[in-house]
Amino acid sequence: MQKSARNRRIVVALAVLLAAGLLAAVLWDAFAPKAEKQSATSFAMGSVLQIDIYGGEVDLCGEVRDAVAALDQRISRTVDNSYVSLLGKNGGCTADGDFADDMKAILALCEATGGAFDITIGALSDLWDVGGENPRVPSAGDISAALALTGYEKIESVGFRYTVPDGVIPDLGAAGKGMACDAAKKILATDGSVTGAVVSSGGSILCFGKNPEKGLWTVGVRDPDGGANDLAGVIRTGECFVSTSGNYEKYFELDGVRYCHILSPFDGYPVNNGLKSVTVRCDGGMASDALSTACFVLGEEKSLPVLSSFGADAIFIYGDNTVSVTDGLAEDFELTNGNYRLREK
Ligand code: ADP
Ligand code: MG
After folding, report:
1. What's the structural domain count of the chain?
2. Pocket test for ligand 1, best of 120, 143, 261 (most atoms within 8 A of CB)
3. pLDDT digit string (tens) for 293-333?
4. Which of 173, 204, 233 is the C-terminal boundary of a domain?
5. Same domain, 154 and 92
6. What's the domain range around 90?
7. Pocket of ligand 1 (CB under 6 A)
8. What pTM was computed for the model?
């Protein structure tokens, strides 16, 4: 009898301890400091700039927004005195240290992609005017004339002075939004109080630090045939940059053919190679953006060595709704849309 009374006391004591533990856990969760979140939505570089920052102690959204606006002033073709406009219209510009660094990195990307990403695409983009007021299928003669004005190796530099031959039109449209994400990361990394952040500029995204709830970030990969909120799948990832280029962003259709805004610097035509989109993940914003454009031009097979030379991974979505994922992303990518299926390796 005595023994069973003692056992009962032990059971009661354990139950009380357990209940106290549970209560402590609940209270801890309720009162634990939650990472403060600051958010801002604005328009920059021709698309939406969405900023969500956890843990920052000052107005970092404002700083990021200002940095992206300042970058736009330097690299936009539509800003009269930007470096890129001066280079195109005046035939030359004298860069400051930052723009010279950017140009070096951009030209290295042009070279590494074998010219599939080519920032002298301007004459061809103007000719086709996809997404502009007067989209058209130009004559073969006009296309070869514009092709003759295309080629990143036509850009010359002596010290900080960059020049191009007459008629060559530089256009950083395929890298600018990724560069905006780089600019954001610079600010977030210097601050020190930020625990995590997501910054998206059009088709380019920066995932910074840690998601306060789940650790990893979830990045949606758009359904190329759906609306802005429809996904083909999701990537679960730590800190990285993700960019997507697709034939659904800007295009026009004529006689059943889709002409998209990504042009082949090799033949001067909008890319029409069976791909609907390419998403690239890597550790640089400019690189992820330029590579997504380049891989869209190159197709999967030719993209693979380029991607691996940058330590980058990619998701290729094809016109027949098959999806191919490089090895480094296989574990982190999940198809969430029943209309798509993974390709057999
Ligand atoms: P988005 O601007 O929609 O995010 P991209 O990053 O793929 O898409 O860039 C497409 C833009 O880049 C086009 O609008 C054009 O200005 C330019 N562009 C098109 N083809 C190329 C190319 N092969 N290399 C470099 N820039 C390109
Ligand atoms: Mg791009």
Report:
1. 2
2. 261
3. 999 999 999 999 999 999 999 999 999 999 999 999 999 99
4. 173
5. yes
6. 74-173
7. 117-119, 121, 125, 171, 173-174, 177, 202-203, 245, 249, 261-263, 265, 289, 293, 297
8. 0.90
